[in-house]
Amino acid sequence: MVSVHNRKFVSADPEKCVGCQICEYACSYNKEKTFNPIKSRIRAVRVNQIANMAVTCRLCEEPACASACPRNALTQSKENGAILIDKDKCNGCGWCIEACDYGAMMLHPETKTVYTCDMCKDKTDGPQCVKWCPEEALTVVTSDVLAQKARLSAIKKLFNEKP
Amino acid sequence: MLGYAGRILYLDLTTGKSYVEKLNEETAKKYIGGIGLGMHLYLTKSKKGIDPFCPENPLVLSVGPLTATVFPTGGNGHAFISKSPATGGVGESVSHGTFGTELKRAGYDAVVITGKAEKPIYLLIDDDSVELRDASKLWGRSPSEVEDAIKEEVGDFYVRVAAIGVAGEKLTKIACIINDKTRAAGRTGLGAVMGSKNLKAIAVRGTNDVTIAKPEEFFSMVKEFHERMKGPAAQKYRTTGSTENLTIQNNLSCVPTRNYNNSHFESAENISSTIINQHYVAKIIGCNSCAMRCEHQAIIKDGPYKNTMTRIEYDNLWAFGPNCGVDKLNFIIKAAERCNYYGLDAQSTGGIISFIMDCYEKNILTKENLDGIDAHFGNASAMLALIEKIGKREGIGTTFADGVKIAATKIGNKTEQLAQHIKGLEVTGYDLRCLKTTALGCAVSFRGADHNRSGAATIDLRGKVDRLKAEPGRGKIIKELEDQYNLIDSLIICKNAKGTFYKEYEEMTKLYNATTGLNITQQELELAGERIQTLAKLINTREGLTRKDDTLPWKVMNQPITDDGPSKGAVVTKNELDLMLDDYYQARGYDKQGIPTTAKLETLGLTEHLTIITKKEA
Lengths: 163, 618
Hints:
The complex is a heterodimer of chains A (163) and B (618).
Chain A: E1 9-12, H1 22-32, E2 43-48, E3 51-55, H2 64-68, E4 74-76, E5 83-85, H3 95-99, E6 106-107, E7 114-115, H4 128-132, E8 138-141, H5 143-158
Antiparallel strand pairs in A: 1-8, 2-3, 4-5, 6-7
Chain B: E1 7-12, E2 18-22, H1 25-31, H2 34-45, E3 59-62, E4 78-83, E5 90-95, H3 99-106, E6 110-114, E7 121-126, E8 129-134, H4 143-154, E9 160-163, H5 166-169, E10 177-179, E11 183-185, H6 190-196, E12 199-205, H7 215-229, H8 235-238, H9 245-251, H10 273-279, E13 281-285, E14 295-299, E15 309-311, H11 314-320, H12 329-342, H13 346-361, H14 380-392, H15 397-400, H16 404-411, E16 421-422, E17 425-426, H17 436-444, H18 457-461, H19 474-492, H20 504-516, H21 522-542, H22 554-558, H23 574-588, H24 598-604, H25 610-617
Parallel strand pairs in B: 1-6, 7-12
Antiparallel strand pairs in B: 1-2, 3-4, 3-6, 4-5, 7-8, 9-10, 9-12, 10-11, 13-14, 14-15, 16-17
Helix pairs in contact in B: 1-2, 2-19, 2-21, 7-20, 11-13, 12-14, 17-19, 17-23, 19-21, 19-23
């Protein structure tokens, strides 16, 4: 099992996200040298004008994508919880795409195998979407940090302190 | 030639047939994209004297070389170009959001639409697939509803839609084309051109790659502009929003109030940007690729219009606020939302209502003439009632929906003197009597009364020139600003981001080359800006517009400002206008009648259109 402190993922703050899709461009350019949202590991969603949020892989405990794969192409890294994809085993059937509750698993239009966020493991400055987000809406967090943030903001509200 | 998709789609709605042509490098460099490329395609594919509503009249949709890249604000624009039913000259309107990005990824720099469908249809472009789909169920519905319905029908959430409302369907000459629910290609009535083709909406989905030539240079510029957009250059747009203009201009007595009867709005405090932001703005959102995000989404929290949501900017605030003498924000926001619902240009709609109110106060129109509406200035309910009439084109709406110029012709009784328009397009929220550089900019603007063809208001308001004076030199200022604005609308970057370019031509050239790899010189880009202006002028000249159309509304020239304050007594006299026009034409290399000279066309590489001016000369 990956320890909570090592299982870091990219999370978007819906209060700050403005739906600009810069994260998609940063990701697809970094990974594929092109601007193309369908090759981005993170996707911005605008449900209506005031409801915006970007979504990517949350490195779930017991990830549904991996469980769903009939060819054992998906495994979870024991070091950091990232979903590792064996491209030779993947045949693009899409069961993992259906299984993921967040739409974070996607089929590559050219390789016809699935892909998801790998936290830009090859980059020394971390996930490129976080680096380029102009609103600082994206952060690298652990589930523990998310809980801390929620706790703090609830308590501050209780004592009428500014969030 | 990266950045560009390299393809132009031609579509005939009568036959349903389409074909694709390559965009060649020379055309790309000459006309850049956006309105430049669009007007070039329009001029070469249309015939002189064509009725804007006849099937053969092309409607061009274009994007720019930066569209669908991550360059902040550059990634998201598109433009519509045709003959304007409102002005009879060139009609163009740029919009932002996400719509343009899909068109670029679908693989097109422009779409040229001709013909007329037999029954209401919508166009679905999905990469190489071009399909005309039945829109009978969408007819009569709002652009926002149409967007939802098409996404549902196609079954793809990322389909982007630009649609017309009822106004466009009914060929109302102030109809706009709305994309992404709250964004509009607002001016010059191109929604009606779409309506005349039975084309309810254009839906686009694109999945192709967009790549750039010099990533290192490109990304270092992106980084630099991200920083600039967090700084003072974009602060107003990021924070209070353009509604702040109201306070700034009101202090200088530059806000056209009650159809130019005043230049200062006594109740401006009630509708200030502070109040708007405190009580109405729910969220400031961004267009695709934008790092400064400025779109202030206002929501009405209580009362009969509870939960109404719309974008609020200075332009629609002015149109329904000071311009109609209304100081109730709930009604102003509702009015803006109704315009989006019917697909009306909010500025022109406000212009029409203030014209009606002016006629009413002067007893030229009565309650009986106006379907029982008590249209005195400041009556917010009357304002909303009139929007319904205009939007639905019902009752007295039929008299007024096509703009103040046409309405004044119908009513007669010297109401042309109350009709605040240039070339048939209603004025915007800048009092031209006391902003004289802006006045020149609006007089010569090829699309009619609009501050956005030169943006000279900034120079006047900031005191870079004496705003109350008409003097030689203003012509050159307008020429230079116009050339820059033409490039902004052709590269398609956002005008709100203009301040983030510190050295406009130098940085735009660098950006263009980093994106496309075409390696043009700064001089070539500057010349393109000038070429695009003259291209527009050629369309207008071909359609019969002359120096007499480069003029100002009657009140601007005959009714000096009476309000006490820094603008009192200001007016633009005929002599002042003539002086500035002569100065401008000279700076442009046009003759005294405002016609481009042969020499100028040669310099600009526009000799293929020489017959337009030689016929005039003969």
